[in-house]
Amino acid sequence: MLLMSSEAATLPDETNRISLNGPTMGSHWYVTYFDGPADSDPLLAALQAAVDAVDDQMSLWKPDSALNRLNSAPVGEWMPVPPQMFTVLDSALQVGRASGGAFDIAVGDLVSAWGFGPEPSNPSRIEALLRGSKPKPAHSVLELDPKTRSARKLAPARFDLGGIAKGFGTDELVRTAARFGVKALTCGIDGDLRCVGTRPDGQPWPVGIEVPDYDSRGIHSVVELEDCAIATSGDYRHWVDIQGQRFSHTMSARVGGPVSGALCSVTVLAETCMMADAWATVFLVLGEEAGRTLAKAKGIKAMFLTRQ
């Protein structure tokens, strides 16, 4: 995952530094800036409202979320979708096609069966999913209509936006702060982070990339960013223990379960956190060799860490 920039290096003019944070999506969000509104309370409220809106729309944990309404909608029935979620769904399908199905939001059943949703892990459900035929990828079973901003399922499917929603939420933090006149900041949610502008001394924002270790937190390396988003997907922060074996939260529709192998962390740079988040998931699902090949073909900057 990524560490807040203040943990990666000492920032200048600490007396002028303003840090805001709050809960979201089972984790927390934060925004750090040095030049902005004198009264930060309205900005804090707006930032919390922005991530709350994303969570309300795209959470598997909230029964009345727009995502869960789509999941429970009958096959073939058009359902209106909120603008933000429509953007995320459209982007998810684009990355799904571009990655040959490695990024697939139609893994909601897998997410729930393995215990990464509201329900605990269900071994019998896992076995049934493994024995059954592989589901069709989301980009072949979900249709979007941009004119009416609606969506419909072409086949039974349960969608999960865990591989892209936090990135989008981070981008929403940037857009919200900009409305309040904040021109330079660093912000993030969990393993997704975005840097805008520079620090007060004109230097880039330092971002620490964690050592992929289950039991401790340390910095593997530091990158300095300006007007750039960065996201890390890994197997070492969110996992379940089943009969003494750890299983990652990242699902591969191709294998019908959690990703596994030597590759344990992928960090991606992109213009938006939504895209960095999605492509980091793609490469973790593909594995080191195929992931590196696709990253090179797409011109995507990525760092792959393997567990020796």
* Poorly predicted ranges: 4-9
CATH top level class name of the domain at 66-153: Mainly Alpha
Helix content percent band: 25-40%
Read across the widest sheet, the strand sequence of neighbours is: 2-3-7-8-11-16-17
Q: At the fourth CATH level, what is the homologous superfamily of the domain at 66-153?
A: ApbE-like superfamily
The share of residues in extended strands comes to: 25-35%
Mean pLDDT: 87
Q: What CATH architecture label of the domain at 66-153 applies?
A: Orthogonal Bundle
Secondary structure: number of strands: 17
- The fold-level CATH name of the domain at 66-153 is T-fold
Tally the helices: what do you get? Answer: 10
Q: Categorize the overall geometry.
A: globular
Distance between the termini: 18 Å
EC number: 2.7.1.180
Family: Belongs to the ApbE family.
Keywords: FAD, Flavoprotein, Lipoprotein, Magnesium, Metal-binding, Transferase
Protein name: FAD:protein FMN transferase
What keyword list fits this structure?
308 residues; alpha+beta; T-fold; three-stranded antiparallel β-sheet; 17 strands; magnesium; flavoprotein
Can you give me a brief rundown of this structure?
The chain is 34% helix and 27% strand.
Polypeptide structure, described:
The protein contains ten helices and 17 strands. It is of the alpha+beta class and 308 residues long. It has a seven-stranded antiparallel beta sheet with strand order 2-3-7-8-11-16-17. Strands 1-9-10 form a three-stranded antiparallel beta sheet. The protein has a three-stranded antiparallel beta sheet with strand order 4-6-5. A hairpin with a 2-residue loop joins strand 12 (239-242) and strand 13. Helix 9 (273-286) runs antiparallel to helix 10 (288-298). The chain is globular, with a radius of gyration of 19 Å.
